[in-house]
Amino acid sequence: MPILTGSTPTKTLFMATQFLTKSTKPSLTHFRQLSCTASTTSSYPQRLEPNPPDLINWVKKQGGFVHPSVRISVNGQFGLGLVASDDIASGSYLIGLPDHVPLRFGLSDGDCGADGDSVLVNVARKVPEELWAMRLGLKLLQERARVGSFWWPYISNLPETYTVPIFFPGEDIKNLQYAPLLYQVNKRCRFLLDFEKELERVLGNLDSNDHPFGSQDVDASSLGWAMSAVSSRAFRLYGKKIQDGTHSNAPMMLPLIDMCNHSFNPNAEIVQEQGDANAKMLVKVVAGTNIKQDDALVLNYGCLNNDLFLLDYGFVIPSNPYDCIELRYDGALLDAASMAAGVSSPNFSTPAPWQQDILLKLDLDGESPLLKVSLGGPELVEGRLLAALRVLLERDVEKVQNHDLDTLKSLSVEAPLGIPNEVAVLRTCIALCVIALEHFPTKLMDDESLLKKDISGTAELAIQFRIQKKSLIIDVMRDLTRRVKLLSSQESAVS
Asked: What SS3 state is found at 94?
């Protein structure tokens, strides 16, 4: 069962990334010196304007609220962030943004007039939903290009560069050593290159008055900067109220609030309030705990794995409890893994009809199966994979039929099909971990030695990423081995 790979050659990925960082075509870069390459050091990148307006004062001038003990400061590995200059009590109101301050971009027909540019709306509709950050990124680029933009005091405070993999040098992308992430980076680079051509086609002959970017060309580098700015800073919150009384899900950039860095143990949270008299929405940040002087204000960006943290935010979380490795479900390789684990006569490649019926229910068989499965994270073994292994390593159909799928998918339900079956399942998972670990061309100790050398910031990120993946695999193997020993001792005691 190899690590899931993409269909596009990695070589193309490197070429695409180099294009993003070395494009010489006239673009927005020549309008407001848009720099789109990743930082090559671990220090925080410069902001777009060397001496940007005071963001706290700007928010206050727009009718917003900022707690007197909240200030902007450099905060370790995450660069600029918000910190408390004095103790702040739990429940305190930290930041409030009135409805007109967040930067958002609606794509419905009714939003064209509000956003003032039906051309930009139509272009944004060509962006796939999974790359929603690019849609809002187009609006961000438009406001950046517009002289006198209402949001310029905010935009000028944005980083000039981003340490996301689409801007890594080719060698550092290769250094990630993890096929699922390489596939995603490649996919984004290809999209940016193709979308640049689409913008040329759609906008090339427009009059300057109708051109959303003032007749300036927007290249893949500019698009990459905008997409990275949004993916690393935007929040998905409640949008406009729709007919059934609920609210749409709307990504928006929240000036000042987006300077709160990430933690799985946040001390602040975002709250949305809507007044009864009008439809205006107030976005607030409230202290969720007592915050001590000099503590950073942190929000939880989500229970994400390190792939998404690096792709969208440009950092890696050590010992991330939600990190996992992606695998591809494949019968032949599962047979090989089981045999390597000492399981006799596995039949993953040729399941019985009743077993195949269960695989269909697990979406691991059929016309359009979802073959991506995972190890690690809160489940340790993804439920669909666990259920498949339990079922296919059991020959007694009646024993399996005594349990529902939820039971078979749960690792907390200990040995539902008996201890011998469970031991075989866990040993097969351990063998899968060994296979996944062998796909990395370097050893963990070698990686740790490389971090002690004088290397670039992007190289350091790439090495940290693969170290965390390898450490995760080893931790999963240890946990599964512990479970096998415990089950084996129980079986010995019974016999």
From this structure: strand
